[in-house]
């Protein structure tokens, strides 16, 4: 096939300028990768979608350089309660304000457009990154050593040549469709009305995130970023999108909450909550990330978080392949490493959704009875589960701790470990505990090494543990992937 005329070139082209795509672009640019992002919309979508980022997501935003700005307007809920129609607590998750393993509060309620604005600001400061709005990747051709993507832009159609194309272009992903990749449907599909409001009197609103398990109208009520709140209402059979989006209909739905005069309507939209996973996340030089690769019901608040984890996993691997001559087979580890974690988050979201979305009064009564008994017997979890570690991929299988998520320790003066680790893989040995940069974290790192009976560990750039053992053995094992030589000391 003859290669068409090329209008622009880059190492990685990302289709989709949402949180996943721009985060990936920032992480790549910080590693010296030349990246172009094309986004079909002219500007950031002005109204909120995602409302939650967990501690792991915040750690990724820390690497992107925007975590502090995001946290400035984030809020924390007292708890996450599942309540029946009578107001009885069926399930309660606490500890949202505690620091999670990622070194940030466990649950952070955010305003998505504000997060995206900070990410784009970070991207704009990178000299090797380019964001092209009002532009969409409509198709591509693969030419052995490159991909040539067709772009529809404000001044007409043109082509961009890249080493790799990442489709982070949403649930309807043109890139996924062009690649001929289909979805596996996980059999959860429910239409809901989402209502976002601006808050004038926060004293009249709940301080906890709530799932109202009322068979008459299952409802979600959650905090968002500063000055905002959200309700979600399950749409009943026979109700239409046009009907439920009428202001008068929404006003009736909000009457039981007694918030008239305390809030102002900002957005109303009907969404179908789905659970789906793409069969393949890589096809040749094309990869998928975020909603293009998977869709998660919102009940566990893991949709945006999952996209950020995709970005963190892909960024160092794409950089290793495009800049450091790593074997392209490294990219084949992306889906095997991410999919088990993703499936666990979807399973949790579906479990929560099925708990909430019971509309038969008899089934609701039976559900309530089971939860009340389990709660009385203390058989229910009090916090969301820890999602599974990496079990296959680029880890030193069999070594203690391999594939686990390495905690971001915080020193007594508030310094975070990642600010010492940097962007490259890092070997930390017991002998390093006296080095000035590591010393503030020596006790915590030492405890981790003790718990795993290890002399040294190698931490991957995405903060998962490659493996444990001797420093020389770890360096040799890591070198097998032909990536950047890991630092052996933190200076």
From TrEMBL:
GO molecular function: 3-(3-hydroxyphenyl)propionate hydroxylase activity; FAD binding
Species whose genome carries this gene: Sphingomonas lacunae
Pfam families reported for this sequence: FAD_binding_3
NCBIfam families: PRK06183.1-3 (NF004829)
Keywords on record: Oxidoreductase
InterPro entries to which the protein is assigned, alphabetical: FAD-bd, FAD/NAD-bd_sf, PheA/TfdB_FAD_monoxygenase
UniProt record, GO biological process: 3-(3-hydroxy)phenylpropionate catabolic process
Domain FAD-binding: 10-347
Signal peptide: none
Full protein name: Bifunctional 3-(3-hydroxy-phenyl)propionate/3-hydroxycinnamic acid hydroxylase
């Amino acid at each position: 096939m003859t290669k068409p005329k090329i209008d622009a070139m880059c190492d990685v082209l990302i289709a989709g300028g949402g949180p996943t795509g721009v985060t990936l672009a920032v992480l790549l640019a910080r590693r010296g990768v030349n990246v172009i992002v094309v986004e079909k919309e002219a500007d950031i979508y002005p109204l909120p979608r995602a409302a939650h980022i967990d501690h792991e997501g915040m750690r990724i935003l820390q690497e992107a350089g925007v975590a502090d700005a995001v946290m400035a307007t984030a809020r924390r809920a007292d708890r996450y309660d599942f309540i029946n129609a009578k107001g009885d607590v069926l399930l309660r998750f606490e500890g949202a304000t505690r620091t999670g393993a990622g070194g940030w509060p466990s649950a952070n309620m955010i305003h998505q457009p504000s997060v995206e604005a900070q990410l784009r600001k970070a991207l704009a400061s990178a000299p090797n990154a380019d964001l092209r709005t009002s532009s969409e990747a409509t198709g591509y051709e693969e030419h052995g050593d490159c991909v040539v993507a067709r772009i529809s832009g404000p001044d007409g159609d043109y082509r961009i040549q890249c080493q790799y194309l990442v489709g982070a272009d949403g649930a309807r992903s043109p890139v996924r469709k062009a690649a001929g990749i289909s979805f596996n449907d996980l059999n959860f599909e429910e239409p809901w009305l989402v209502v976002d409001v601006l808050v004038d009197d926060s004293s009249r609103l709940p301080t906890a995130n709530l799932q109202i398990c009322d068979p008459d109208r299952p409802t979600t009520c959650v905090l968002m970023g500063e000055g905002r709140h959200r309700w979600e209402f399950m749409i009943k059979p026979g109700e239409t999108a046009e009907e439920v989006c009428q202001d008068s209909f929404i006003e009736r739905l909000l009457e039981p909450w007694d918030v008239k005069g305390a809030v102002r309507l900002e957005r109303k939209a009907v969404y179908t909550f789905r659970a789906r996973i793409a069969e393949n996340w890589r096809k040749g030089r094309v990869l998928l990330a975020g909603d293009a690769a998977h869709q998660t019901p919102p009940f566990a608040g893991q949709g945006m978080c999952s996209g950020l984890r995709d970005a963190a996993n892909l960024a160092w691997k794409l950089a290793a392949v495009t800049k450091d001559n790593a074997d392209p087979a490294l990219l084949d580890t992306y889906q095997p490493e991410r999919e088990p974690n993703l499936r666990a988050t979807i399973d949790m979201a579906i479990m929560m959704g099925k708990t909430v979305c019971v509309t038969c009064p008899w089934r609701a009564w039976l559900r309530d009875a089971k939860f009340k008994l389990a709660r009385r017997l203390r058989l229910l979890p009090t916090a969301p589960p820890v999602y599974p570690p990496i079990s296959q991929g680029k880890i030193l299988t069999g070594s203690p701790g391999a594939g686990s998520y390495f905690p971001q320790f915080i020193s007594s003066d508030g310094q975070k470990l990642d600010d010492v680790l940097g962007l490259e893989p890092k070997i930390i040995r017991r002998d390093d505990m006296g080095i000035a940069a590591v010393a503030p974290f020596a006790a915590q790192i030492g405890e981790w090494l003790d718990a795993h009976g290890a002399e040294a560990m190698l931490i991957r750039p995405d903060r998962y543990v490659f493996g444990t053992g001797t420093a020389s053995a770890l360096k040799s094992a890591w070198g097998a992937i032909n990536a950047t030589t890991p630092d052996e000391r933190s200076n």
